[in-house]
Amino acid sequence: MRLLNLRPALAAAVLTFVVGACAPALIEQSANRTVPGAYTPASATTTAAADTATTARIRWAAFFADPYLRALIDTALTRNQEMTIARQEIEITRAEVRARKGEYLPFVGLGGRAALDRMSRTTIQGATEDNINIREGQRTPDPLGNLQVAAVASWELDVWRRLRNARQAATNRYLASVEGRNFTVTNLVADLANTYYELLALDAQLALVQQNIGIQTNALQLVRLQKESARVTELAVRRFEAQVQHTTALQYGIQQRIVEVENRVNFLCGRFSQPVARAPNAFATTVPNVVAAGAPAQLLQNRPDIRQAEQNLTAAKLDVRVARAAFYPAFRLDGTVGLGAFRPGLLLTTPESLLFGLGADVLAPLVNRNGLKANYAASTARQTQAVLQYQRAVLNGYLEVTNQLANVANLAGAFEAKTKEVNALTTSVEIAGNLFQSARADYTEVLITQRDALEARFDLIDTRLQQLTAAVNVYRALGGGWQ
Question: What's the pLDDT score for residue 310?
Fold first, then answer.
């Protein structure tokens, strides 16, 4: 008798062994997480290789000293549409985690059923019911009612951890979406800071052009006076006048660029066109932030895109396990408890109306295994993609930091050289003007010197802007700005 009771369990064990033996071997790949011990020598002038202090740990509110810029960033983090989309992506993945958790827990439902059946008397069931009496002297009601109120439970036993691995994979994708939001914050803060600095640079260029228009207008008036005294010809007057008009045209071009950059700031802040508040002459007092790169290994923890790729890789590995578990038999328990009767008056007559049931199912894939194999192959390929995407994110992060650190060092030298060039040309303008008034220099020398001085000042502003954006880009490349 005991052997007879063990036969179902033995059959299930044999079925599990036979089907499981045909499951593919588990393929798990690991990403290479090794990075160089230090950044390239080009960055040695910015930070020491052995120094583990990194600017990435500084909060953006402390990194940026300009109160107007901090107010813009605060507005953008609240109203920017891309940030709102990223937050909704987090909500989507969070709902997916709840759904996967629900699959792992037992399903319990409460329902009712009302039916009216009349069986054909020419069937076995109908012929049998025709000769069965509910009570002595009474035949079976025809048609026969069926009323039920019952609680139904169903639970898949997660023997192979398929459901738990699927839930954990969904959790990792939720964490990846959080890191994706953080990466969006990093890029938004950096883009807004760079755009704001560009706006300050345009203000400085506009002020420089307006100043030069005044200087060139005074020079034009002086040349006209000299023409009246026959010291210069009409050609000199026309050349000075053309220079004034050329500089005036530059002014309108810069004003248009200011409008566009202001709207770019407004777009990042998620608002319609309005003036962007900023301090007058702020560009002259704005200096690049001092950055500390730290060690390359810190990128794995600081950069949100690398952390996002790591979470996606973990989820992809779990997906492989879920796909492999589909080759094994699925075990399910089903239970029902409630009340049933063929007339409403008998529904509450207990224990006669009490009904219950308990069952167990084992379902193993035998024939249609091509679909399972295809799904497993696709999961393995996605795992390989996740490994490569993680390694690509690490390599990209390291190279971005290296490039920006070298850029900071080279721009410091370029700014120093440009400063000396501007000082030399400023002195040359004064000398050329004095020589022209004493008739010891030609007017073309004055025009050329003024043009070169204006271009040099423009280049100096542009170099300072590049320094500011390079410092912000180092901050972004190191993984700062999302804290």
Answer: 94
